[in-house]
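Crash report, auto-generated. Payload:
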Amino acid sequence: MRYPILLLLKHHKMTPVAFAIFTEFLILATLGFLLLWSLEILLPTFVSARINLPLYLGGILSLFILHHAISVWLPQKINPLNRPLRWFLIIFLGFLSIILLILSLLKFPSPAIVIILLFCGFLGYLFRRIYSAV
Amino acid sequence: MSFLEPFFPIAKTERRNYLLGRALLYSLCLFVVLSFVSRIIFPTIPFSFNFNAPQSAKNTFLDPRNAGNQAPITNGHILGGQTIVGNFESPLTFSATRISFTLSKNLPGDAQFKASLSRSYRSFFFPIDEIPLASFEHPPLYRDTEGIYYAEIDGTLKRFVSGAAYLSHYPESFAILLPPSIEQSLPISSDWIGFRSGSLISFADSVFLVMSEDEIRPFGNPDILLSMGYRFDDVLPVHEEEIGIYERGRALRYGAPQSDGTLFQDQDSGVYLLVHNQKLRPITSPEYRKFILEQTTPIIASLSSRNTLLSCIPVSVWYRQKTFTCDIPKNALSEEFGNTFQFSLKNNSLDAPADLDIITVSLISDQTKDNFILFANQMYSRLLIRFGQDI
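Recovered output after restart:
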């Protein structure tokens, strides 16, 4: 191995602990972004006047890439989510999405709402197809 | 897994470290969230002016100028012994003020400055006019048989845009019936006379302040009208043709000066003062005082409160010689008489002119119930503006 320090890190007993906490931090940061973004939709400029949201998103994406790289380098068995928690997350995120969608569409004329919803549905279908293909 | 279990299998020997790290992570998150929420509800509000970009919309420290002759200072150059003043406005209550400024180059020797802060209404900071308003002067005024009012000005007959506009300037008794000889001999001007400067008029959903004979400016939001000391009871609804004679200026923001014609009353002496050409003109004419008080409610202010100054001596910070700061720890300025602050910075180094790069005055909010209620009201107003009748 060209970099013995990396090898040392890989097999260090604290590495899985640090990686688990890093993962948890990433999830909290993503939930925080979701919350701030929801607030921004509700009250435009309320968050963006104080926090640079694109920079925040860029930071999270960079951390996700780093997380992915580490997870490839450090194969870890992931404990699957238990069923109640999975359903709680699905219901919570689905409910949040529906609320945000309703609030975003509130002032649009009815034909525009239909077009936007159809377009959202089409995008969702497209993503599903791409995801399935991968 | 659940939230009580790790995302990855952790060896039993490392479980304790994992739980410790997790507790640390959640404590940190809680601290960040709480401090963020606290800073939003009880903000430290900076008001700054960048002399390298004097036209920037980001400059919230308004109208930096020479205290002596009121000439604008946009290059940041302060001569020795000169004082620069500027204004900013915030309706919140504050516990402390932090002043900081950066010079574009080091000053030779020991630089000496004195920073001072006072609070009142923006136009109430104007100097007192030595010439009082001692009589109710007016041009010859007429009313024709159709009820149209005229003023004879510069050899022409100028029409008032409406009876209400006339009555905002003069009482009914001043106008005499238009004699046919005057009507035939004097040309009628194409210019109209609108409402008295300082009047509040409303049309559709907007309230406007009459700034001059030909300009009105809308209030940015209802809180700005109240913060400037005006009252909604004094707003006069007008018709389209009455408002059509004016040009609409940009919206009034926090810190905007009250227009000419605005009436103040000094609470200490009871004297009425009228804003006129950037001066406060005492009204000594009983006739005019009686008339103006029928038209508008005076804004109660206080000359002694206006003249109260809180000061500190800025010193350069240890890491940068060109940056000066000082704190005014306790805000002893009265909150009753206006929300506009006037900041002044005097260059006490008589033979060393200073060049300012940027100046910032930060108001540190009190963690009080009043400020919390104000924040909640602002949020509610924003929600109403955003969603209107949908919520």
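Post-recovery validation: The interface with chain B takes residues 13-14, 16-21, 23-25, 28, 32, 42-44, 46, 50, 76-82, 85, 103, 106-107 of chain A (CB under 8 Å).
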